[in-house]
Amino acid sequence: MSSGAKSCIRCGGRLARDNTGEQCGPCERGRERRPRLEPSQWRTEAMRQALLTKEIGTVLRAWRRHPAHGGRPVPQVELAGSLGITQGQLSRIESGRHRVRDLDKLNWYARTLGIPAELLWFELDESDPAPPVSHLTLDNGVLVAAAAPVSADLLVECFSAVLEQYVRTDRVAGAQRLIPIITQQMRYVEQLDDTGGGSARTGLPLLRARFAEFLGWLYQDAGDLATASEWTGRAATLAGECGDERLRSYTLVRQSNIAVESGNPAIAIELARAALRDSAELPRVRTLALLQLAHGHALRREGNESDRAIGQAWEATADTAAGDGDLTGYCTPEFIRMETANSWVHLGKPEAAVETLLKALPLWQIEDRRDLGRGLALLAVAQARTGQADQALEAARHALAIASETHSSRTLRQLHRLPEELTGAGGADQARELRTILHRTLRVQH
């Protein structure tokens, strides 16, 4: 019987066939040495800027990319092994999805890397460093774990990982099936925050804000804009209470997006401008805010202002020096082109919209299937307005195939208005066929 492939006990990676130990090579090497820089190397401009953020994740990422390591970044798995955590944990810390506030952990990371005490934003413990592990005791010769409560940091890390997976699921499968699940998760997180921490240092209030923002999005994609607005507003309030400007700016973008879909361009423009004031160091949030600004002007038929905002959005997204974490991972060039085309449809420029979408849609990633459906529906509308009835019907068929799986109300709204667009453009036969397909497909679903 095969014993199966072995995994590293530290990072979880698969061990080489000839490795008879319990750890992979990088973790073993990391365990044997502590990665250190000379004191002067901590005082470079890049390291100084990283330390000024007061975020250990930013410092760890900057350390891995330090020129002293030979011009190539130190692999995450190697640094993770030195710190006594998994590669996945380090990835979440570096991206900002898990913020380390526990002083024992901060002390351990600082001492392991050899960060000079005078550069730190917290007081370095004078005792010898020891990795933060669960306490163990001996009971009649048997090693047993001490019965200590689960830390808030561990709960935040676990729920953050769960939320990340649900965000990915939504982008592939749509929102409708996730709403009951995330609502239940949200109640549990609220209960933990109300009874288990209270302090922003635990990370629970920010986690609560993230779940609220995601729940707002799910309701928006399901077509319940009133509930979407309620949850997104709650997320904005929680983000403000936590002092998290990144999430606060992003929730303003989300509120602007809801205003666009509700047909309130003035409110959308006001919220987008507020997001822009707070997102100077967040290029993707800034890009999304500019796209919402463009939509608001497009709804008011202000073509020059809309096109100017679109141009600024492309300029903003070209600045990739600073990442915005997992909140804005969907803001790809293809997404920006789709949003640009959406504004052009509102402005009565369907030819430009068709040209842009035909370039963008073939490059769409499989993990963004729900938005691909929306892009295809938008293409169908634009093609109908340019007199391409047969092409519009074909695009609508593909969009409906995706919408029947994801149940995205944004896509279905586009498709339901398409027969009228086709009829008005001389495609009465295609309009009748599309109505039949829509009725048959949606009736089967119900």
Description:
The chain has about 450 residues and is mainly alpha-helical. The chain folds into 4 domains: about 25-130, 434 Repressor (Amino-terminal Domain) (Orthogonal Bundle); about 150-245, no CATH class; about 265-330, no CATH class; about 330-445, Tetratricopeptide repeat domain (Serine Threonine Protein Phosphatase 5, Tetratricopeptide repeat, Alpha Horseshoe), CATH 1.25.40.10. It has 20 helices and 2 strands. It has helices at about 25-30, 45-50, 55-65, 75-85, 85-95, 105-115, 150-175, 180-195, 205-220, 225-240, 245-260, 265-275, 285-300, 305-315, 335-345, 350-360, 370-385, 390-405, 410-425, 430-445, and strands at about 135-140, 140-145. The chain has a two-stranded antiparallel ribbon. Strand 1 (about 135-140) and strand 2 form a beta hairpin. Helix 7 (about 150-175) packs parallel to helix 9, helix 11 runs parallel beside helix 13 and helix 15 (about 335-345) packs parallel to helix 17. The longest helix has 22 residues, at about 150-175. The model is unreliable at about 30-35, about 145-150 and about 320-325 (pLDDT under 50).
What's the quick description here?
By secondary structure, the chain is an all-alpha fold.
